[in-house]
From TrEMBL:
Name assigned to this protein: Putative spore protein YtfJ
Tagged with keyword Membrane: yes
Keywords: Membrane, Transmembrane, Transmembrane helix
Residue spans crossing the bilayer: 81-102
Organism (species): Conyzicola lurida
Highest taxon of the lineage: Bacteria
Length: 110
């Protein structure tokens, strides 16, 4: 089972760039190449029997596209992906600022 997972992992790794950059698409005469973040992982058990275990998975997040224009190709980010990344960062930063502000205020009272 582990050999199957290793072979599959090697084959998928060679596909990496093709998975990150999609096939060019023409929309209203403008050529667009979609771009995404792609990651995957695999694991396998050490037994040589069918119950050795193993598996894998992956994900893809569309982050934008290269758009061909008169000045050449330019990258246009996907606002939804940017919001998905920035929302937890902004949330954590706001909690950290609030904690520092409350901590400073409490020290002044005592």
């Amino acid at each position: 089972m582990a050999n199957i997972v290793q072979n599959l992992a090697q084959q998928v790794t060679s596909v990496g760039a093709r998975a990150s950059y999609g096939d060019p698409v023409s929309i209203d005469g403008v050529e667009i190449v979609p771009v995404s973040l792609v990651w995957f992982g695999f694991g396998g058990g050490s037994d040589n029997v069918e119950n050795g275990g193993g598996g894998g998975g992956g994900a893809s997040i569309p982050i934008g596209a290269y758009v061909r224009g008169p000045a050449g190709a330019t990258f246009k980010p996907n606002p939804t992906a940017v919001l998905a990344v920035l929302t937890p960062i902004a949330w954590a930063a706001s909690w950290a600022i609030a904690a520092v502000a409350l901590g400073t205020n409490r020290r002044r009272r005592h």
